[in-house]
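User: Predict structure, ligand iron/sulfur cluster.
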Amino acid sequence: METLKEKYKDYFKGKKYNITTFGCQMNEHDSERISYILEDLGYKKTDDRKEADFILFNTCLVRENAELKLYGQVSSLKKLKAENPDKIISVSGCMMQTSTAREVIVGKHDEVDLVFGTKNINSLPDLIYRYLETGERVVDISTDDVKDDFVEYNNKNDFQAYVNIMRGCDNFCSYCIVPQSRGREESRRPSAILAECEHLVDQGFKEITLLGQNVNSYGNKADFDMTFPELLDRISKIEGLKRLRFTTSHPKDLSDELIEVIKNNDNICKFFHLPMQSGSSKVLKDMNRKYNQEKYLERAKKLKSEIPDLALSTDIIVGYPTETEEDFEETLKVCREVGFDQAFTFKYSPRPKTRAAKLEPIDDAIVQDRFDRLLDTLYPTFNEKNKKYIGKTVEVLLESESKNNDEVLTGRTDTFKLVHVKADKSLIGSFVKVKITDNTSFTITGELVE
Ligand code: 5AD
Ligand code: SF4
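Assistant: Predicted complex:
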């Protein structure tokens, strides 16, 4: 009997897809996997939604505005779909894992044909065949049973790759929707991860970023015996791997062993993202973060003293419902004391079904004022840290053309500093030496050293 795969073999020829991603790095990577699967079927990518035969929105739930943006963008396709019923419109990702957002899409957005979750991306071809066969909307957020498969994914480019080492989260920070949207924590088997990394290096990838919501608890609940520092050490020893990064680390279980592994392996990048969320021990307790100000400071200082050139980055939420002016000042104090190189700052937003959503929010004007004061505290330090690079020659992996000037390329140092340098496009994907001459709070600029 003819399989669906055979039946639709020619259907995808000449067809185009367009994908929009809302959200975090994990989600960006999921979009890359989706793109890989679609290109494998025969679709070609397009940046123009109007000419796309398949329009996808891959969503994230971590912050509220993404949800509103999604509904707006999906609605704007109503007319396009009415005029071209053959176009397929799909919404996937975290947001679809939760019943509320899924109900909005399924209930109010007839233009959407296909809804899938974060756990069944590998089954996408089957979902598409199901839709083509029936012409009926397909909603499927089940789990596929191939999570450990060694799958070759489409990556950001052909020299930098992301590798998932775990999914989900068990931490239940009071404000965070991830444990609901991505489910309980599961670690991928070390053998599958190592095989994927080795394969990527064989193919010429120079930089690998390991992804997980809380990489420090890798292996905790698993039936194999491997910790994150051990895994990182093993991957860093793969012959030919130039740069190894990872994200995200929860401060509560950042071990000395991990610091040692970073220190002892030159190819593990000297950059650490350590989300603080708040500097107030009281707010941290309310957030269920399981560390206090003292512990955060101790961990941050240990990292910096053990690895002197390390750049430190963080996430901070302003205006958590129980945050008083005094609590907020504690956050500013810790920022000054640690001296971050970079920070992602967020105004608190209530997320459905989280514990914090039941609390009375703080007045917007107060939150905005605190947010502005936080940036006023952070930016001068970013600038100071970047200024220290002036006069130094650094190794940079060139990533792309600069958005504003096509003679300029951008790349990153080992410490994740964004570098601007005049260089020929042909150098994208290579390591070059750059002598730093100038800086802002967010970038450093320099000249190629022959
Ligand atoms: N409101 C604001 N920021 C949030 N984050 C997660 N949930 C929320 C929320 N409800 C931020 C945290 C986290 C980052 C990925 O997003 O700082 O570390
Ligand atoms: Fe969310 Fe906390 Fe898990 Fe991070 S550790 S994903 S903030 S619940």
